[in-house]
Amino acid sequence: MRDANPFVEWVVKVAQPCNLACDYCYVYELLDRSWRDKPSVMATGTADQLARRIAEHAGRHGLPRVRVTLHGGEPLLAGPSRIEHLLHVLKEALRDTAECDISLQSNATLLNPLWMDLFRRHGVSVGVSLDGGREANDRHRRTRNGRGSHASVQRGLELLRRPENKALFAGLLCTVDLANPPLRVYESLLAHEPPAINFLLPHATWEHPPPGHDPDRTPYANWLLAVFERWYTAPRQETRVRLFEDLVDLALGGDVRSESTGLADTDFLVVESDGTIELSDSLKVTRDGGAATGLDIFTHDFDTAAQHPVVADARRGGLAALADVCRSCEVVRMCGGGLRAHRFHPSTGFANASVYCADLRVLTTRIRDRVVADATALLGGVS
Q1: Rounded Cα gap, residues 31 and 34, in angstroms
Q2: What is the band of 1 on the pLDDT scale with cuts at 50, 70, 90?
């Protein structure tokens, strides 16, 4: 059966291991242990089958463009030859079917000129995970022997920012830590001249709430709002911030497709190093095997995956997918109930508001009110 809402993005686990041991990592440090049973790198035969399945799906649905994100662990641990093989087979499989935008999410500690030459030749953009300056980043993002990673990341970023590589710099990904002053973090990220920044809330559930969880004081909303104010009032745009841009668009009546904001269905899948098809990585925070579907690319095509009840339920947007308390909320169209994983409680599953509900309400309300007031004043001045 052909799905009316096809997938357009695949997150591909080309390597399972990581050379860092970040203490908040949802893959290795929380509840999920499924990585232990998967191959350390994706075999070439698995890469070949993945390329065929993506091309098959794109052709069946007439997709003009698809996205592939190389992920891990640390994807560079797969090695240049395996990465280049996957890039080649994707290009060949999709040659007469669809354009393929390929990116890689890395901790940047292993970037070197040979990697950048490979990425230039194949047009691969690179996103880098970084939580701020040295002190902020190294609080959590350390090597297995306890050493901080900031110096190595900075060397990778310096390479990525060279004139010949700068067009491939996709941006920075930062996990919010309440112990780090928000404006200091933002300024330290801006110093790397990223074209975009995105902020992630620490993965948490009602069973395991986030650090500093306080629905009365809403510390995560306050942290993000401090950065929003700095970003929004800057005399010129210094960088893009996806979370803020999405909320601004939603406040003005637009639509966005995001896993963490708005009410749209999600449009991506994860393919693990053994070819198994999984849901969003964030679901690994809920329980061991929380992202598993029981499907794989050797036995199942992506239309079959779309129709599978576990997949269909997890990617479904709209009010019907949310708890009763969310459906009547005035900002539900903006927050979308928050990230699905953050709604989880072991006794009620996902039929709950987000563990960040209070923070999301304050964040979205403040941004909505600010943006709508400014838009109204602007339109009033024009008339």
Answers
A1: 9
A2: very low
Q: In this structure, are strands 292-296 and 276-278 parallel, antiparallel, or unpaired? A: antiparallel
pLDDT of residue 4: 64
- Return the closest-CA partner of residue 289 out of 41, 31, 71: 31
- Taking alpha carbons only, the member of 26, 88, 12, 8 closest to residue 273 is 12
Q: Which among 241, 229, 297 has a CA at the least distance from the CA of 57?
A: 297
C-alpha distances (whole Å) from 26 to each of 38, 80, 226 are 16, 26, 26
CA separation, residue 234 to residues 105, 191, 198 (Å): 28, 15, 17
| CA dihedral angle for residue 300, residue 302, residue 304, residue 305, rounded to 10 degrees | 90
CB 29 within 8 A of CB 284: no
Residue 60 and residue 275: Cα distance in Å, rounded? 21
Alpha-carbon distance 292 to 372, whole Å?
41
Q: In this structure, how many other beta carbons lie within 10 angstroms of the beta carbon of residue 35?
A: 18
Count Cα neighbours of 168 within 13 Å in the Cβ-side half-sphere.
Answer: 28
Beta-sheet strand order (sheet of 65-71)? 240-241, 196-200, 169-175, 125-129, 99-106, 65-71, 9-13, 268-271, 276-278, 292-296
- Give dist(CA 171, CA 200) in Å, integer: 14
Q: How many CA atoms lie within 13 A of 265 on its CB side?
A: 17
Residue showing tokens 């095997």? 289
Both tokens of residue 340?
């699905």
Its sign, for the CA torsion 73, 74, 77, 83, is: positive
Which pLDDT does position 382 carry in this prediction?
58
8's tokens: 């357009």
User: What one-letter code names the amino acid at 90?
Assistant: L
- Going from the C-alpha of 59 to that of each of 66, 97, 247, 295, the distances in angstroms are 11, 6, 33, 21
243-266 pLDDT tens trace: 999 999 999 999 999 999 999 999
The model's pTM? 0.95
Residue that has been written with the tokens 């609080």 in this structure: 139
